[in-house]
């Protein structure tokens, strides 16, 4: 992790503002062992739990949210493969994923919105004698490495059977990645649109034939790993605030202490909830925690801006301006804050499923 940390510290600004190092991010993460944390040793991983994987996402996010989001996509895809009952797919993809030979990408925003009855599925699967023909497009997917990727997406079946989730390999005929999207930040994240036109895949590429139930089970890991990004970003902003001169930090000392305490409680709550099954039984608790963590990020970054003064507004002097941009991503990544708040309002006081 030390050499990864140093690499991220050196290149964090460039990773945010320019796509030229996009191809280096995943190899750096994999070399440091970040993608293998929380994957059982019997499957070729480093052992540990999903909470340990969240800690690694947080440690990376302390240095670069771009790299943390790449890690989120890759590690979440690994979680999908682990939790799939498709042994052939696991056998085929897990080792190359752990070695970083292919990039895991999760195009499941549409599916998560579908799960919350916000959006219809945008991809269609037609059953054929030898497998399925897949069609559709997704406007946003991160970690679509030009060197090779495999992307998860949910598909409605033409014959009306329950939706499935497929893992789409980059080299299947009919799969097309767009150019990188012209983002305001996270520019080395290999974020692009994906077009799938008459792609033929057999059942060995199907992560699940029951998207709805499977998504409910992977959602705590999906969201928990995402919360790791908020934890790391907020932690770094608060650390930077504490390192400011005494004169600039004295009058906000109490606010910083309060934010630090809140972040500590939220991190502990996340860890407990992903490990003891609370978030599976009561997703509303995790939704609320994701909202609360986003608030902590906003507060932490605002305190950093206040403590940094004009220096934070100069290019290349501090990471403050970058963290402000990074923080603006936190509310919009699916499930977005608007979506979560709507769900909590609709379903209160009963638990949200
Ligand atoms: C840099 C970047 C990388 C991304 N990477 C990925 C990725 O790897 N995989 C992936 O799947 N997605 C990815 N996304 C997409 C992201 O997760 C969100 O889905 C997307 O930014 C929000 O969708 P939208 O803009 O289409 O929202 P819109 O549909 O335009 O909606 C606007 C807001 O309202 C909310 N909303 C809409 N309808 C409702 C409703 N009925 N009830 C409650 N709330 C509602 C939405 O959640 C959103 O917050 C990425 C986005 C960005 C910016």
TrEMBL record:
Pfam families tied to this protein: Acyl-CoA_dh_N
InterPro entries the UniProt entry points to: Acyl-CoA_Oxase/DH_mid-dom_sf (IPR046373), AcylCoA_DH/ox_N (IPR013786), AcylCoA_DH/ox_N_sf (IPR037069), AcylCoA_DH/oxidase_NM_dom_sf (IPR009100)
Domain named Acyl-CoA dehydrogenase/oxidase N-terminal: residues: 9-101
PANTHER family for this protein: ACYL-COA DEHYDROGENASE (PTHR43884), ISOVALERYL-COA DEHYDROGENASE, MITOCHONDRIAL-RELATED (PTHR43884:SF12)
Protein name per its UniProtKB record: Acyl-CoA/acyl-ACP dehydrogenase
Annotated source species: Caballeronia jiangsuensis
Organism placement in taxonomy: Bacteria, Pseudomonadati, Pseudomonadota, Betaproteobacteria, Burkholderiales
């Amino acid at each position: 992790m030390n050499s990864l940390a140093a690499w991220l510290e050196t290149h964090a600004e460039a990773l945010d503002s320019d796509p030229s190092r996009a191809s280096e991010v995943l190899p750096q993460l994999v070399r440091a062992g970040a993608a293998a944390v929380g994957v059982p040793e019997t499957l070729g991983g480093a052992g540990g739990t999903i909470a340990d994987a969240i800690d690694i996402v947080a440690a990376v996010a302390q240095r670069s949210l771009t790299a943390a989001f790449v890690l989120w996509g890759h590690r979440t895809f690994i979680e999908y493969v682990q939790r799939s009952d498709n042994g052939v797919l696991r056998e085929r993809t897990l080792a190359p994923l752990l070695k970083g030979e292919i990039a895991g990408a999760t195009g499941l925003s549409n599916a998560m919105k579908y799960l919350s009855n916000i959006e219809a599925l945008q991809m269609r699967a037609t059953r054929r004698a030898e497998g399925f023909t897949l069609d559709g497009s997704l406007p946003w997917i991160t970690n679509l490495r030009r060197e090779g990727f495999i992307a998860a997406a949910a598909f409605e079946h033409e014959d009306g059977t329950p939706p499935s989730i497929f893992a789409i390999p980059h080299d299947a005929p009919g799969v097309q990645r767009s150019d990188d999207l012209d983002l305001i930040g996270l520019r080395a994240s290999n974020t692009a649109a994906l077009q799938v036109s008459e792609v033929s895949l057999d059942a060995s590429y199907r992560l699940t034939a029951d998207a709805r139930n499977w998504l409910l089970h992977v959602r705590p890991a999906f969201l928990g790993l995402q919360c790791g990004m908020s934890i790391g970003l907020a932690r770094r902003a608060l650390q930077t605030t504490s390192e400011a001169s005494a004169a600039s930090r004295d009058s906000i000392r109490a606010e910083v202490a309060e934010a630090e305490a809140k972040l500590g409680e939220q991190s502990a709550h996340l860890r407990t909830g992903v490990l003891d099954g609370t978030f599976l039984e009561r997703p509303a608790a995790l939704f609320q925690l994701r909202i609360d963590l986003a608030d902590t990020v906003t507060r932490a970054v605002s305190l950093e801006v206040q403590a940094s003064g004009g220096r934070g507004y100069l290019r290349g002097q501090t990471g403050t301006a970058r963290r402000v941009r990074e923080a603006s991503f936190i509310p919009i990544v699916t499930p977005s804050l608007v979506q979560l708040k709507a769900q909590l309002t609709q379903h209160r006081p009963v638990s949200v499923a």
